[in-house]
Amino acid sequence: MIKVLVIDDEEKTRGLIKLLINKELGINMICEATNGEEGIAVIKQKYPDIVITDIKMPIVDGLELTQKALAYNPDLIIIMISAYEEFEYAQRAIKLGVSDYLLKPIRKNELNEALKKAIMRVKERRLKYGISEKESASRPVIQQVLEYVREHLSDQDLSLSTVAAHFFLNSSYLSRLFKREVGEPFIEYLTKARIERAIWYLENTDKKAYEIAELVGVVDATYFSKCFKKNRGMSIHDYKKVIKNYKDNLQ
């Protein structure tokens, strides 16, 4: 599935761009935004593959949009459209990482040629990283990964490689994507998620430490106790005491 985002403050221009796009290119979704600020929000929500944007817009212009968008998703392909022929604008856009720079009035053949090249890059990248077409297009893959991890915390074999295999992703690609989007390595997130789940069991059940370790997918209770202490600053035994004292004071 190929998703394209069209950003321009003029509704007529957005409509024209959509009309000029060749249906045979296989673009499945075309989103719209009226300025760069709104465009950034749509990028984070819809995760487009390609962005077609005007360079001159209110609030956030095309150059600033490019900088912010590529900082969020370096794999994003951006096609810049401008009424300016000045070399300076094109030079700045290319330096920021814009893939193509098209001048107004927009010509159908030029737009579709730029899109064709962009789509080829998207497909080449997917092939390189092992991204399958089975991947759901309704939500960013990282959101699906986080939900999957939460739902399978009790699985002892839950790991980066098993999650990557489930989503038809290359492990190295998922590792980079996860750290970029979540802000920490997969293993750190998994450990924290398991400890949070363990805390729920400690606060709401009378289960022993080794039983809780098994419930959150860890076979080695001693190892899990060490992870818990490192993360929470106290042992599981001490944490139980804190909970007991708190409950006693409430009575």
From TrEMBL:
Entry keyword Phosphoprotein: yes
Record has Transcription as a keyword: yes
UniProt domain HTH araC/xylS-type: residue ranges: 143-242
One GO BP annotation of this record: phosphorelay signal transduction system
PROSITE patterns cross-referenced by the UniProt entry: HTH_ARAC_FAMILY_2, RESPONSE_REGULATORY
Modified residues (4-aspartylphosphate): D54
Domain called Response regulatory: residue spans: 3-119
Alphabetized GO MF terms: DNA-binding transcription factor activity; sequence-specific DNA binding
Compartments (UniProt record): Cytoplasm
GO cellular component: cytoplasm
InterPro entries in UniProt: CheY-like_superfamily, Homeodomain-like_sf, HptR, HTH_AraC, Sig_transdc_resp-reg_receiver
Keyword field: Cytoplasm, DNA-binding, Phosphoprotein, Transcription, Transcription regulation, Two-component regulatory system
Pfam family, one: Response_reg
Function: May play the central regulatory role in sporulation. It may be an element of the effector pathway responsible for the activation of sporulation genes in response to nutritional stress. Spo0A may act in concert with spo0H (a sigma factor) to control the expression of some genes that are critical to the sporulation process.
Name under which the protein is recorded: Stage 0 sporulation protein A homolog
